[in-house]
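Memo subject: From amino acid sequence to discrete backbone structure tokens
Keywords: amino acid chain, backbone geometry, structure tokens, three-dimensional fold.
Body of memo: The sequence and its backbone structure tokens, given next.
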Amino acid sequence: MLESARPAVGSLAVTSPYDGRELQQVATSGPDHVEDALSAAYALFRDRKALLPVPERIAILNKAAAIMSTQIDELTLLAASEGGKPWNDSRVEVLRAIDGVHLCIESLRAHAGSVIPLGTTKATMDRAAFTQKEPIGVVVAVSAFNHPLNLIIHQVGPAVATGCPVIIKPAIDTPLSCLRFVAILREAGLPPAWCQVIVTADNETAEKLVTDKRVGFFSFIGSAHVGWMLRSKLAPGTRCALEHGGAAPAILAAPYNKDLALPSILKGGFYHAGQVCVSVQRVFAPAADAAEFASALAQAAEKLVVGAPEDAATEVGPLIRSGEVDRVAEWVDEAIAAGAKLLCGGKKISDTCYAPTVLLNPPIDVRVSTMEIFGPVVCIYAYKDLDAAVKQANSLPVAFQAAVYSDSNDIAMRLYKELDASAVMINDHCAFRDDVMPFAGLRQSGLGVGGIPYTIEDMQIDKMMVIKSAGL
């Protein structure tokens, strides 16, 4: 969706990650398009008289949500086809995205300034002060493939709500849902320059967009390697939020409800073929029943239906690229060769799908134990000492969300306190998220706090007015 009159530098074939069929050709942008987009966005921001009033922003978002509500099946098919997440889960994503647009409105209305307590000293007598919210500036957002619609809502929705001109670069694997949402915003009345899309497979062009001095806020969802690299190159004064990944731990601490934990871990580990930054990856179970629990999990995983994402019967879809299937296979083979016990899976189903896999006791120094798998693999580790399990759970340079399964409140509270995580789910899997919640990667897992209300806060500044009056 090029805004300038310049011709596209090329085109990108968007294909199905399941069967490789072409879905659509998308025009790609170059450095000149980036300059045009930044110039238009920055000019909008600098013209304070041209800023969209809050009631107009709210009306646009309300209308966008209403349009989306009439296109649920179409948006579901688009997201499933380009991203590979099964139909039922993609439909949940679409419904969540619609709710996210409404949450942008609610959060905007709730984000108010504050009164500063002057008049408490001789120097501040006859003065009153308060703050109001203003947009931070041009927002540049770089998004990820695994939630092709909802992640765009997380980044673009708050920018529109706060009155920030936004330029969004979707993942090159999944640009179609982003382009559709931006088209919906325009149909709802948003002038085109307020939300522009840059699609490019050229890293230099993307870096030019992100690091420009006119960028007020940079929002990034993707790999830690790329996120931290881009942050190091931001222009002075550009604020940012980074959302990377992790290797999420779940601890089973006796007494715990196995009938509750098993389906929960099954969903949290194999949802979207494990391609979620807080997927259940490392499960620590008491040595007395670790093998039994792992066997039960494997039996359940073997029954999961792997197939085409557009099929409503599918429970696990493809990985986003065939190279990712090869990588996951390599990591699993490495773990098995080093002593892990393979309980199910451990093989490629096709060039695009990998069988849901459960490993028992992989060594703690192999890649499935130390790095984010981002594939349909769950590792079970038997522990004899709970302190040792916590130490191993906390041993990696990444930390995001974690889970604890226990019927003991005292143990659950203890583990909540001791686990390195920004959120600990009690008797629920660590992939749970609602968009009203704070969502924050710690250490190498990210910077800042996601979640729509928190992103809206990030995309605004508090501007203070101090009034001096003898009448005060």
Q: What stands out?
A: The chain has two domains: 10-244+445-466, 248-433. Residues 255 and 280 are 20 Å apart (CA to CA). The longest helix spans residues 87-110. The chain has a mean pLDDT of 96.
